[in-house]
Amino acid sequence: MSIGATAAEKRTVHHLIGGRSVASEDGRTFETRDPHDDGLLGTVARGAARDGELAVTAAREAFDAGPWPRMTAAERRTVLHSVADAVDEHRDELALLESHDSGKTLRHARHGEMPRVAQNLRFFADFAALATEEAYPDGPVLGYSLHAPAGVVSAISPWNAPLMLATWKVAPALAFGNTVVLKPAPQTPLTAARFGELALEAGLPEGVLNIVHGYGGDEVAGPLTGDPRVDRITFTGSSATGAAIMAAAAANLTPVSAELGGKSANIVFADADLDIAVPESIRAIFGGSGQVCFAGSRLLVQRSVLPEFLERFTAEAEKLVVGDPRQEGTFMGPLIGRAHREKVHGYVELAQREGGTVLTGGGPPDDAALSGGHYYRPTVITGLDNDSRTAQEEIFGPVETVIPFDTEEEALRLANTTRYGLAGILFTRDLDRAHRMAARWKAGTVWVNCYFERDLRMPFGGEGISGVGREGGNFSREFFTEPRAVVLRIR
After folding, report:
1. What gap in Å lies between CA 310 and CA 424, rounded to an integer?
2. Percent of the chain beyond pLDDT 70?
3. What are the tens digits of pLDDT across the range 309-322?
4. Any residues with CB less than 8 A from the CB of 80 and at least 6 apart, and which?
5. pLDDT over threshold 50, residue 330
6. Does residue 450 carry a catalytic annotation?
7. In sequence order, what are the residues at sequence separation of 6 or more whose Cβ sits closer than 8 angstroms to the Cβ of residue 48?
8. pTM score > 0.90 for this model?
9. Which residue in 285, 338, 440, 478 is a FRET match for 65, CA 20 to 30 A apart?
10. Does the annotation mark 293 as catalytic?
11. Which residue among the candidates 93, 98, 293, 471 is catalytic per the annotation?
């Protein structure tokens, strides 16, 4: 059955290898379920190492002998814009699939993530076509640079923003002339599979984009990270998995770009405009049900404004609608699965053992209609030290720890006392303070008086165990190409 069937129908999802829809060679499958009610959405091919090898072979052949790397950037741009057009035309279908598969609210999938999927494709298609090279004339010698496509790219994407983050990797890789093997997270295979169908229909040559489903380790992901025919690996996910991928890639010295976990500080100073700071801080931790790598999960509030801020913040958290992600007005859908909800709740229990006080939330909602799903209420915890496990380890759920501070120096010290370094959020009216802190904050992105505003030309990535490398604009070009110097003697 086609992935393009209506969301109510069960699906059979195969791999896409060399332009063909194929089952796993050993016939194994796994189930994908709706986190709203644990309902079965379909069965998915469970790839083994052999399936990964076949996908790498198809991508290698398409790169070495196919037309894609030999097209001009303008020709590739035309194809990628056609793929983006197909995404726009199928936005409602893709959004519904994403909502069922990941628990994401339909409103956000339709109006936030699917437009960004198309934007990823259009931006990198245009960027690659318009990028310039440098020339270095020096008397009788002329030097110039080239950015040749790197080759075969393994792209391993997460479940929290499935198609948006998959295309954040696939779009630049394709735009700069590479071929790709994409492995979406096993929890959320549906939109990646449908995207592969749409890309072929829009004119992407066979073998240029291959999609394999399954698990990591020695299963389908093994060849994607350890095969010497792979030239680049781009990964978004947990820090532990990122470390394992880098270890596998090291055997072949394969370059890796990894955007990993986070425990980002959200700092609110007494001079902040609370009419901005409160709702943006709510969005920074409870948006996406807290399943966001750069969520502001350590809320540091200047002591003099803490009572007022905390009262307003807690009140707003309690107003958030937790429920069916397909219903209008829902702000938070379910967590991705039962095991993940148990992990999140385990941290709330840990926080209480560490001396924390749960001001609101701390468990699933009482609504019996939601009892079959993996829901968790927005949770606010006070009374913890910054060095507690709850405040230092990534929970990846709707759990906020609130910690007071007195001075700017203390706030910066608390913010930087973490092994992570993905993002920081700052609310203040003092622009001098904003510049001072941004310069010393160990974070790949610092948002001031806003949250999750993105310009795709800017670098994105993290410090510490939040990742290695940056992507976006020229940073993506540097990663997905092989910069080459050419020197000619002119007579």
Report:
1. 19
2. 98
3. 999 999 999 999 99
4. 121, 122, 124, 125, 171, 174, 175
5. yes
6. no
7. 24, 25, 26, 28, 214, 219, 220
8. yes
9. 478
10. yes
11. 293
